[in-house]
Design brief:
The complex is a heterodimer of chains A (272) and B (549).
Chain A lengths: L5 H18 L1 H4 L30 H37 L1 H16 L2 H11 L4 H28 L2 H9 L3 H38 L10 H8 L11 H25 L9
Chain B lengths: L7 E14 L7 E14 L3 E5 L6 H7 L9 E9 L2 E2 L5 H7 L4 E4 L3 H4 L6 H5 L1 H5 L5 H14 L5 H4 L9 H13 L5 E5 L7 H18 L2 E6 L2 H7 L2 E6 L2 E7 H6 L4 H7 L17 E8 L9 E8 L4 E5 L6 H9 L6 E6 L2 E2 L9 H6 E4 L3 H4 L6 H13 L3 H14 L16 H14 L4 E5 L7 H18 L2 E6 L2 H7 L2 E6 L2 E7 H4 L6 H8 L8 H15 L1
Helix pairs in contact in B: 8-9, 16-17, 16-18, 17-18, 18-19
Classes of the chains: A mainly alpha (272), B alpha/beta (549).
Chain lengths: 272, 549
């Protein structure tokens, strides 16, 4: 067992702190999520650590609940995009032929449309709930996962061990999940960190534009939106979510880098 | 240049070479790759370095230009080139030395040439870089070398791109590249290993002639003792980074002192008495013609062969002769365009998808590269256990017991069941692949070049194992190979393939007895023999052939 490098340790600590805060939000938040407890845009004090927001709610409370919403949606959307993208990508690569062509061209088509515009159009006609958000974000991002998964799997399916499995008469399920998946895992796991961060940014963007998480529910993009007017008066409230997103992004990437390093061996041997 | 005399060109004393390895999940540590090797090379002489993979022969070869590949460090001893110590020499001194005084010929010329540049550019590159000659002089010298190495149209050969010439020609072009700056020493690193036997001879003869004509000294690295015996004056046998035996060719070949050398000399002398072609064939390939999708020529053309139960049919030929395609047609990976394949008395469906599970089970395959034939993320137990589970529904203890039994059959112990392929040696990997095939209780195993990626001694072990298993299990082998020595060792019948057709087919004794057709003769005469002067014999014999025609 190699020692965990400092950068990864730092990343792990921060990621863990964010996730714990998100999970135990109701226990650690000092006030209720939607309670107006003070004046408008009060500066930070012993009572309100980060001050209050545009309508007098405690900003720390909002940040903790906001993180809960943002992280939960991003995690769910990432899992959905990897589940769909990887399965379809592996299927396309192992079946090949017209299945591959049809899937790949369809994905190209979706990727040709900017995801934000696509999401805005879909969300403006559909009821905006947490469920639809996850679905739209997850499916849109699955196109990127599909590309990666297919590319990795194409390299694996030409290996003799996959041919040996085909000659044995194995079905698609075995070939995808037992032959291809274990060998495609490292690049996918590393990519997962990246995609998770993009989901955080995506949901924040949507909320900022007003088509994401709806008030009074808190989320980081929403907090920026609610407090952006304060920047003109020197109120820093809108900057906290930005800092939170940035630190989370960096930390997740530090962890992802470490995982990639640990699981990829340049010599091509077995990796822990 | 014969007047160079017997001056010492290269003298290596107590060479020690180390490297750092990074095993996954463990701290990095230093290992010694070469330990206490000493050698002396006179000007104009050829020293053969021989050993199996991991013996350190390439590493020692490269140390002659004070170079360590892939983080390898030359940590001890002295390397003197023309009296100069070069192990500790400065970078500038080494730059002047490499590509000028000492040059290098790599194993895979195809990977060593830049595909985007014409051959001439690359052949004279170092000569120009070192300022040894003007462009016109360098090109004239290159043309001379092309002619000397027997390349076609020497004047215009250099205008071609690497992909426009054959593998054997490319290897000779690389030799020209190494000889162009008039070096004192050339390092040949397995220059003929990747070539077909028939091509190997031409390249070998060209290299030998070029060495003699230019009076250059050479280190010749190979794993094939028969090859090195043709070109060297002295031979050093290496094993695990240590010297085993060092002496003149005649002594090493005719009177080896060490057990290991004796084993190397006597390799490929397995006796196998040919069985009579009796009984209903287990496999009948009848008039099979096949081509790859999107192409317009037949890779297989009306191939007809039979294989009796419990016997071995060897399919021999050079690369591109269609022998592996025949395997793909039989396994159903490439459905034939016409003709039929009968297996165990029933006609096989052309495509894999239409075959029954019993068809698949009774026809197993073993691959050339055991490395990529096993999923690196599966344990040996999973690899061997899967056919048991898949075909026979074995589970739990019953399965584990059967896996154990198979591991015993391939002469591997119980400790291997939970290991991963990366933790096995090349020979062990191939054994596990054999066990996986046997687990299905097949009637026929297709062996596609199963020993060609292995060291000779290891390959011998695999062949013996296959012969033993054939006796016990009564399984038939379709043995695809380019190596006639292997064929002689194991076959009952032989099919010689050339450009997609079977040009000679019959019992082993018939196929290997004269009169030969031209191609079989060429193939047979090209197998290197462990005998000094064999190369000259073959070349003269060939000249007579062509004079007679």
């Amino acid at each position: 067992m190699k020692r965990i490098p400092l950068s990864a340790l730092l990343g792990l600590t921060i990621v863990a702190a964010y996730f714990l805060a998100a999970i135990f939000a109701p226990l650690i938040a000092p006030y209720g999520m939607a309670d107006a407890v003070g004046g408008v845009w009060e500066p930070s004090s012993a009572q309100y650590w980060l001050g209050t927001d545009s309508i007098g709610r405690d900003l720390l409370t909002r940040m903790i609940y906001g993180g809960r919403t943002t992280i939960a949606i991003a995690v769910a959307a990432t899992l959905l995009s990897f589940g769909t993208g990887a399965t379809l990508g592996f299927t396309a690569a192992t079946l090949g032929g017209w299945v591959d062509q049809a899937l790949s061209r369809f994905i190209d088509l979706i990727m040709a449309i900017p995801s934000l515009i696509f999401a805005l159009v879909v969300l403006s006609v559909m009821p905006v709930t947490v469920g639809t958000l996850i679905l739209v974000m997850g499916l849109l991002d699955s196109t990127r996962v599909f590309r990666l998964a297919r590319a990795v799997a194409v390299d694996i399916t030409v290996m003799d061990y996959v041919e040996a499995a085909r000659l044995r008469g194995e079905g698609q399920i075995w070939i995808i999940f037992r032959e291809v998946l274990p060998n495609a895992l490292s690049p996918l796991v590393a990519e997962m960190g990246m995609r998770f961060i993009f989901q955080v940014l995506f949901i924040s963007t949507l909320s900022f534009l007003g088509l994401g998480v709806q008030p009074p529910m808190a989320d980081w993009g929403g907090i920026v939106k609610e407090n952006k007017d304060g920047i003109v008066y020197g109120v820093t409230a809108a900057l906290y979510p930005a800092i939170a997103i940035a630190t989370l992004a960096i930390s997740v990437n530090l962890v992802a880098d470490w995982i990639l390093n640990r699981t990829t061996s340049l010599k091509g041997g077995r990796n822990g | 240049m014969a007047d160079r005399g017997a001056e010492t060109l290269l003298e290596i004393r107590d060479l020690k070479i180390e490297a750092t390895i990074y095993p996954p999940g463990e701290p990095a540590r230093d290992i010694t790759i070469v330990d206490g090797v000493s050698l002396t090379l006179q000007q104009g002489k050829v020293l053969g370095l021989i050993g199996e993979s991991g013996a350190g022969k390439s590493t020692i070869g490269l140390s002659a230009m004070s170079y360590g590949r892939g983080g390898v460090r030359l940590t001890g001893g002295t390397i003197r080139l023309s009296g100069q110590e070069i192990r500790t020499a400065s970078h500038a001194a080494l730059r002047a030395l490499r590509g000028h005084t000492v040059t290098y010929v790599a194993q895979s010329a195809a990977a060593a040439f830049n595909p985007a540049k014409r051959l001439m550019e690359q052949v004279i590159e170092t000569t120009l870089q070192h300022g040894l000659a003007s462009r016109a002089e360098a090109e004239a010298r290159a043309v001379g070398l092309f002619a000397e190495l027997g390349l076609p149209n020497p004047k215009t050969f250099g205008q071609r791109y690497p992909h426009q010439v054959s593998g054997g020609q490319l290897q000779r072009a690389m030799t020209a590249m190494a000889l162009c700056p008039k070096p004192d020493l050339v390092i040949f690193d397995e220059p003929t290993t990747a070539l077909d036997v028939t091509t190997q001879i031409d390249v070998l003869a060209a290299i030998k002639k070029a060495i003699r004509d230019t009076g250059v000294a050479a280190l010749y690295i190979t794993h094939d003792l028969a090859v090195v015996a043709q070109v060297s004056d002295d031979i050093m046998v290496l094993r695990n980074g240590k010297m085993v035996e060092y002496g003149p060719v005649a002594q090493i070949i005719e009177a080896p002192q060490q057990d290991y050398t004796r084993a190397l000399v006597s390799v490929r002398q397995i006796e196998h008495v040919e069985a009579k072609a009796e009984g209903e064939p287990v496999l009948s390939v009848d008039q099979v013609t096949a081509r790859y999708r999107g192409t317009h020529f037949d890779v297989l053309s009306k191939v007809t062969v039979d294989l009796r139960p419990g016997q071995t049919l060897a399919v021999v030929g050079e690369s591109g002769s269609g022998k592996s395609t025949l395997a793909r047609a039989i396994t159903g990976l490439l459905p034939p365009r016409s003709g039929s394949i009968r297996f165990c008395g029933r006609t096989l469906a052309p495509a894999l998808a239409q075959r029954t599970r019993d068809d698949l089970r009774e026809l197993q395959m073993i691959y050339q590269m055991a490395d990529v034939a096993m999923n690196p993320r599966h344990t040996v137990g999973t690899i061997i256990g899967r056919p048991l589970e898949f075909y026979f529904g074995l589970r739990g203890d019953e399965k584990r017991k059967k896996i154990q039994q198979l591991l015993d059959e391939i002469e591997m112990g119980s400790g291997f069941i939970d290991r991963y392929p990366a933790e096995l040696s090349g020979g062990q990997k191939q054994r596990v692949c054999i066990a996986r095939a046997l687990a299905a209780k097949p009637k026929l195993i297709i062996c596609d070049e199963v020993t060609s990626a292995l060291d000779p001694l290891v390959a011998d072990g695999i062949l013996k194992l296959l012969l033993n298993l054939q006796k016990i299990e009564g399984v038939a082998y379709l043995f695809i190979t380019h190596d006639l020595a292997t064929v002689k060792a194991i076959a009952d019948s032989i099919a010689v393939m050339y450009r997609g057709e079977v040009v000679r087919y019959g019992a082993k004794s018939d196929v290997l007895a004269p009169p030969f057709d031209d191609y079989t003769d060429l193939l047979l005469s090209s197998v290197p023999e462990m005998k000094i002067g064999w190369l000259e014999e073959v070349i003269t014999h060939r000249k007579m052939e062509s004079a007679g025609n």
